Automatic annotation (TrEMBL):
Domain Ribosomal RNA small subunit methyltransferase E PUA-like: 19-61
Keywords for the protein's UniProt record, in alphabetical order: Cytoplasm, Methyltransferase, rRNA processing, S-adenosyl-L-methionine, Transferase
CDD domains registered for this protein in UniProt: RsmE-like (cd18084)
UniProt domain Ribosomal RNA small subunit methyltransferase E methyltransferase: residue ranges: 71-242
Function text: Specifically methylates the N3 position of the uracil ring of uridine 1498 (m3U1498) in 16S rRNA. Acts on the fully assembled 30S ribosomal subunit.
The keyword S-adenosyl-L-methionine is annotated on this UniProt entry: yes
Similarity field: Belongs to the RNA methyltransferase RsmE family.
Superkingdom to which the source organism belongs: Bacteria
GO molecular function term, any single one: rRNA (uridine-N3-)-methyltransferase activity
Cellular localization per UniProt: Cytoplasm
GO CC field: cytoplasm
EC number(s) recorded for this UniProt protein: 2.1.1.193
Name of the featured protein: Ribosomal RNA small subunit methyltransferase E
Amino acid sequence: MQRYFLNKVYEKQETIEVSGDVYHHMIRVMRMTEEDQVYLAFLNQVIVAKIQKVGPETVELIQMGTEEQQKELPVRVTIASGYPKGDKLDLIFQKATELGAFGLEAFPAAASVVKWDHKKRQKKQERLQKIALEAAEQSHRSYCPTVRLYEQQQELIATFSQYTHVLVAYEESAKQNEKGKFVQTLTKLKQEDSLLLLFGPEGGFSPKEIASFEAAGAQCCGLGPRILRAETAPFYALSAISYQTELMASLNV
């Protein structure tokens, strides 16, 4: 069943009216008609709705039920990537959405080759938000992550205090066979905790950057003995978090 995200709170009502891009996709692309059913993901609830009336620019639906299955990670994980080369950020944000990331962010690191002015950065952010939306629909998420691209690294560092935990994936930690910080943090995570994970671009982070991160309260960690690519490390981390907080928890281990 097709899923659509509506950026508003659901208040129980007799009919739900949608228009714009959602209407276009329902009626023009999917060619839905009256009696067809869809998922509507509001900010506070996901419902099953049936098309009742199709107009020239709007479609009216009625609620048939609610989605009960939990689709979101029990902890809010934000992925922050140093700007990588090419279109790698498209892949990172798409797959991170499928794996349950709550927030998707990127920033200029010392090793980043990409340089975007305000106009290009805004255009890229809009494109990435669309990619995240499509990935959230495809993976049947209840929530679509918000995308944010920073102009300066310091803007990201200023947000550290907003999170319960902040970890930096650092290849020097991996080379030194550091294994404890990531595992310790995962085992301490509680429901509704927030975790910010920083990943470097090609070339990783410089010692100066690491010092700035640690001064702001972040901890460095290794992600196993192998050095992972900029686009691989976030997927490894999110998969490990899902295993610890969802699969293991379901077994009451």
